[in-house]
Amino acid sequence: MVPISFALNVVHGFFGIIYYGATTVFGIAIAPRLAKLSSEAIRELMKGFLPSVLSFIESSGIVTIVFGAGQFLHYMIGYYKAGGMPEVESVLFSTGWGISILLGGIIGLFGFLVGLSVRKDINKLASVYRNILPDDAQVNEVKTNLMKVSLIGTTLLTISVILMLVGVTFLPLPEH
C-alpha cells in the first residue's frame, strides 16, 4: 500500500510542475504577444486555442491546490495528534519549514486567484471580438490588463514555487 503522504506529494508535484510551467509560458510568452497581434489573429485565437489553454491551466491549478492542501492537512493532523494546537502553531510559525510552506501556500493561492482574473480578461476579450467591429480602445484596455495580470500571477507563482522548494528540499521536516 502506498502511504497517503507519498501519493499526495506525487500528485501535487506532478500537477504543480504542469501548472507552473503552463502559467509561466502563458504569462511570459503568450500574454505579452497578444498586444502585438492583429485583430484578426486574436479573433482566431479566441475561437479555440486560448479558451482550451486556460481551461487546462485552471484545471491543473485546481488539482495542484487540492492535493497541496491535502498534503498540508495530512502533516498538520500529524502534528496535532502529537501535541495539539500548540504543536501545530509551533511548527507553522517557529520553524523554517512551516513558515516557508505556509507562505508558499498563501502566495500560491493568491497567484491562482490572479489567474482567475486572467480568465476573466480572456473571456472579456473573446466577447469583444464577437462584435462585428470591436472598439479598439476597449480591446487595448483588455490586452494591457491581461499582460499586467499575467505577469503578476506568474511572479506570485514563482515566489510560491521557490518557497515550497526551499521548504521541502533544504529545510528539515519538523519532528513530532
From TrEMBL:
Transmembrane segments: 6-31, 52-77, 97-118, 151-173
Keyword Membrane: yes
Keywords: Membrane, Transmembrane, Transmembrane helix
Name of the protein in its database record: Uncharacterized protein
Keyword Membrane among record annotations: yes
